[in-house]
Specification:
The protein has 345 residues and is mainly alpha-helical. It has helices spanning 31-44, 56-59, 66-82, 100-109, 114-118, 121-127, 135-149, 163-180, 225-234, 251-264, 268-274, 279-308, 310-337, and strands at residues 7-10, 13-16, 18-23, 49-54, 90-94, 155-157, 188-190. The protein has a three-stranded parallel β-sheet, with helices on both faces. A two-stranded antiparallel ribbon has the order 1-2. Strand 1 and strand 2 (13-16) form a beta hairpin. Helix 3 (66-82) crosses helix 12 (279-308), helix 4 crosses helix 7 (135-149) and helix 9 packs antiparallel against helix 12 (279-308). The longest helix has 30 residues, at 279-308. The structure holds adenosine-5'-tetraphosphate.
Length: 345
């Protein structure tokens, strides 16, 4: 029998490989989150057994407004569906609805070392310049490892910035397996060759981020077309006026070309040839139109989902399925490490 890359054979049973990925409701999702993660989620739902989570516990590692957090959690889940996920094919749930995540995170914190967590570059970036940071921000990658390992995940589609965290997840799985016997699958990150790291529009040496203080640094998935046009018009460019891809010498225009290429389906060479001699102005105005048009169905589906209220039902069913699977894994973990389970939760 020929198996697709989305399947593995177990005895005489063929099972679908598992996919897990999460997104923090720490702000409005931007086109970096779209190209690096949520826009790719639906690609897996036909062949893989998919789990996609709004990881709200991660969002409280930095100061948050409780009312905003609740709203953004639902809005993020609605964007998953608006970007193409079908709740009948993929399990969509909120992390804090499933207690297994925090429970396994604690066990894994007792496997992870202080030294390896101190080497996480995202922690260093987020802690830089702050007078005080939470212990939760420091142990965030362990919670992410728990998210992934609970579901026997094979593949983790993420942007480039999460690669180090998935590598830590692999290390923790291997260490746990060695110490207590094989319990966890060792997952693989899946980072897009193009679009894995979309840069800020105002500072192309930094990645586009939800939490960047300058809202003009990012195009949000729900931005109306006028706002998209305004932000691209204002986006910094490099010296000269040639639209050429050269990330070293022309980081700003190369970033815009990557966005153009991914949203239009044209190669970087095609984009360069189309704008030869035309200058940055025409290029930016066309780019805005292409991005706004591509995101139009996502905006429309999002509005419909938010007004119908159906997302709550999707999240409830998702939480039930996620807990069914993760609680079995948690029972196994507890037994392996010598914790007693007197209640069958
Ligand atoms: N700039 C980016 N380019 C490509 N992919 C990106 N991702 C994030 N930024 C970019 C990917 O989006 C997914 C969700 O990210 P997250 O919510 O877990 O948090 P993050 O990686 O820390 O993203 P942000 O936008 O920078 O959020 P804040 O500012 O809250 O930290 C991940 O797969 C990520 O790789």
């Amino acid at each position: 029998m020929v198996l697709s890359s989305a399947q593995t054979e177990l005895g005489d049973k063929t099972i679908r490989k598992r996919v897990f990925s999460g997104v923090q409701p720490s702000g409005s999702l931007h086109i970096g989150n779209y190209l690096g993660a949520i826009g790719r989620f639906a690609l897996f739902q036909e062949g893989y057994d998919c789990f996609y989570s709004v990881v709200d516990l991660h969002a409280i590692t930095v100061p948050q407004d409780p009312v905003e957090l609740r709203k953004r959690t639902v809005a993020t889940a609605a964007l998953f569906v608006a970007a193409g996920l079908d709740p009948a094919k993929a399990c969509i749930f909120v992390q804090s609805d499933n207690p297994s995540h925090s429970e396994l995170a604690w066990v894994l914190q007792c496997v992870a070392t202080f030294g390896e967590l101190g080497r996480m570059t995202q922690f260093k970036d987020k802690a830089r310049g702050k007078k005080s940071v939470t212990a939760g921000l420091f142990t965030y990658p362990v919670l992410m490892a728990a998210d992934i390992l609970l579901y026997d995940t094979d593949v983790v589609p993420v942007g480039e910035d999460q690669k180090q965290h998935v590598e830590l997840t692999r290390d923790l799985a291997e260490r746990f397996n060695k110490r207590f016997g094989v319990t966890f699958k060792v997952p693989e990150p899946l980072i897009p060759t193009q679009g894995g790291r979309i840069m800020s529009l105002t500072n192309p040496s930094r990645k586009m981020s939800k939490s960047d203080e300058d809202p003009d640094s990012r195009i949000e998935v729900l931005d109306p077309p006028e706002e998209i046009a305004r932000k691209f018009k204002k986006a910094v460019t490099d010296s000269g006026r040639e639209v050429v891809y050269d990330p070293e010498k022309k980081p700003a225009i190369s970033n815009l070309m990557t966005i153009y290429s991914l949203f239009s389906g044209k190669s970087l060479e095609e984009v360069r040839d189309a704008y030869e001699g035309k200058g940055y102005g025409v290029f930016k105005s066309d780019l805005a139109e292409i991005v706004a048009e591509k995101l139009r169905p996502v905006r429309e589906k999002y509005s419909q989902l938010m007004s119908s209220g159906e997302i709550e039902d999707i999240l409830k069913k998702g939480a039930e399925r996620a807990y069914e699977i993760s609680s079995a894994k948690m029972r196994e973990v507890k037994e392996k490490v010598g914790l007693c389970s007197r209640l069958r939760l």
